[in-house]
């Protein structure tokens, strides 16, 4: 498969600027992988397709307020910092993206907040856009994190809209987000409400919680036509023993296993035994999935409608079948489905 094969007739008007009024009332396109049959439903009706002892696998990562705005010493130039990864808790070292990167050099100091609540020093140029910062903070670690939260902003992708609003504080998190560490939300999980989760529980459908801390690399532009040459950034993964046991019991009992989102698929396919069972895991993955690929764990999945030539679209096409998924996207455009983070969903069976 080549990069150009994942292009489609996309318009920015397809992108949802705001979430649906209620999490579980976005639209749901249901696609049968074998036949290509398409149904148009409401998301909360997903429960109709699953039975007792089936398992949904969720990503419980939590987005932290990773975007900071500050000023460069002496010149006062405005600088935007995107916190990517904490490198060393005691030394307050972080990998960050800087915009505009060309204005920042090793040794520069950056000031954040009123009365310069946080000060950081650039100590390394890690990539063409990235830097390593040391935050100069005398208080406890808890006080330091409180300062980050006070100054940080929800890192809403700018292709949705430039301005972050109060609604994003809640709606750019899943209701089961407990493990802090992501810089972007696992979007398929945003459709699940507390009421829908309770209905799933009452029907006997089980939930398995795993963690993949979504990084910006998940959204990095693919710039090579030959997909075998694209490299994914590493992201942290944790699959507890309890989650693996639930999934494996369902598989052994002939019950359905549904991956909620591409991040879940990447996590579980990164930790598979030789007989196709899910293994507990505590590590990192840079797995890149595209056609052709044989999936081992899940036999169904939920996904939002992704941007052209994105790695997420490539994974969905690998799972649903390239022709089937690209046709479904064409139908979605014709039927007015909303695309992107706050958009509608697809269920592949």
Automatic annotation (TrEMBL):
Its EC number is 2.4.99.17. It is an enzyme of class 2 (transferase). Keywords: Cytoplasm, Queuosine biosynthesis, S-adenosyl-L-methionine, Transferase. The keyword Amino-acid biosynthesis does not apply. It is found in: Cytoplasm. Pathway: tRNA modification; tRNA-queuosine biosynthesis. Transfers and isomerizes the ribose moiety from AdoMet to the 7-aminomethyl group of 7-deazaguanine (preQ1-tRNA) to give epoxyqueuosine (oQ-tRNA). Belongs to the QueA family. HAMAP family: QueA (MF_00113). NCBIfam families: PRK00147.1, queA. Monomer. This is S-adenosylmethionine:tRNA ribosyltransferase-isomerase. It comes from Alistipes inops.
